[in-house]
Specification:
It contains two helices and no strands. By secondary structure, the protein is mainly α. The protein has a domain of 29 residues. The protein is rod-shaped and about 80 Å long.
Length: 55
């Protein structure tokens, strides 16, 4: 019974899960930002390349 009580009072596991969730959310935000910036940069470079081809 004491082991069970100690298990429920132990907060190290909860902290690890919270950090894992934060890392996952940060990774999702970074990936989304890279995708959005990458698409816009690709459009800009494509436009510049096509304009240079017309010169």
């Amino acid at each position: 019974m004491r082991k069970l009580i100690r298990f429920f009072k132990d907060e190290e596991g909860a902290t690890a899960v919270e950090y894992a969730i934060m890392v996952a959310l940060i990774a999702i935000v970074i990936i989304a930002a890279v995708v959005l910036v990458g698409e816009k940069a690709n459009n800009v470079f494509s436009r510049v390349g096509s304009e240079m081809g017309n010169v």
